[in-house]
Amino acid sequence: MKKNRLIHRIIAGIAVLLFLCSLIVVAAVALHTKADEPKSLEASEPAEKPAPLLATPLILRESASVTPMRLASSASHVSRKGESLRDYAAETQALLEEMEAACLSGDHESGRAAGEKRSGIIESQQLDEAVFSYDELYLLSKLITAEAGSYWLGQNWRLRVGEVLLNRVASPEFPDSIEDVIYQPAQYYSRSNRYFRSLEPYDYCVEAARRLLCGERIINDPSVVFQANFTQGSGVYLCMEDSLLGSTYLCYSSRPELYKGDSE
Hints:
It is a single chain. This protein is mainly alpha-helical. It has a domain at 134-220: Arc Repressor Mutant, subunit A, CATH 1.10.10. 65% of the residues lie in helices and 7% in strands. The chain is built from nine helices and three strands, in the order ααααααααβββα. It has helices spanning 2-44, 51-105, 108-125, 134-148, 155-170, 178-182, 194-198, 203-213, 260-263, and strands at 224-228, 236-242, 246-252. It has a three-stranded antiparallel β-sheet with strand order 1-3-2, covered by helices on one side. Residues 37-47 and 49-66 have low confidence and may be disordered.
């Protein structure tokens, strides 16, 4: 009997424990449900708040698209400017060729027009090209033809002859234009000299004149201002020998101190 009573008490205790556990479970479920309800309300209240989040990537996409457009516009501007400069350079080259052709044909009117147009483009567009007139090209071509026009002479010979004349133009000892240097009394030719007045330049002499006026140099010494078949000045820079023409001496100025700053 005592044993049966003990068993009944144990079973009753277990029942009580199970009942208590069920109460705990119910209470936990109720608390969990109540805890979830505010969260669902909070999630539902700001339902329209994500909209600003969508605006940010839109702004980023817009700014990302603007920058390449501006860069592309700048690059396009630079490209157009480069193309314009190339177009102007091509035009000045074509005008220079017209000037050379006019020297050979004697069409001085069209040569002067081409020279003026070329100079205007170079100055207005600030191109890195030498500015000179048609008359300067024509007179220098004639002088080179008169002094070194023999077909068997090399082009370097002609370039040196023309460079000596341009050294005189730049020198404080001589007139400051090609025309005045050529026609200076007791120098190259007088204005009344029939030979020089009627002389028409050769094509290779026009080429030499053009190269010199465009800046090419072969002597590279501004104090070399004499060219003759005899020596003069303060010394000989170069003696050019030819079996038919003999010796041609290129000589330094009698006052070399005037050119020290130019040659440094």
